[in-house]
């Protein structure tokens, strides 16, 4: 019987392995559901989103639960993150208004699910929604250095009123309890990176090039995390410089390879009850 790490590595290496056909079909369905949801909510007003988002988000979470039921929660959320990176579509691709609708649905789903795996997935997805909101808020207020509309003292006051420190630390603690600290760290960094509306370092500004090199080291995390963060900053720089799609794809795959290794380590440290499925 393969270990959770071995299962994850096999899934991450190919979507065509017949041994995992059911899981791979569900993974493809999950990516398709996100892409279709993005297309359907484009241009909708709040009333329209209230009509369509509950069903769309329930479909996304239900498919995530299907994968987790077969391979375990840790492997399920890890392989979903890899698929998000490679497909460039995630919950973070949606606007804040859409994610607010997802949050309302997610709260209701947490109460409704009966099976342990379904409940775990619903709780994890709800927490990931919360820290996406927090990181979007933090990203824009923390780094608007040259915007006269947002002087530093005002930005600091807003961050304090929002209680950004408490919100993020509580979220991290909750996710570490559910998935182990290494996996929680990997997912939080991934979810921030996948936010469509986040502040990015500008490759045309020399100081930003220095920061892209330094910030990963100041995360005080291990080698795997630092190398993934360096690769993310490099990818952002390439996108900001307007490189061709082939160059972007090459760097994204290099980033994915590092991310897979980071997640595999996270799976090794995940709680035992998250490392096996029920099917």
UniProtKB/TrEMBL annotation:
Domain of life according to the entry: Bacteria
Lineage: Bacteria, Pseudomonadati, Myxococcota, Polyangia, Nannocystales
Protein name: Uncharacterized protein
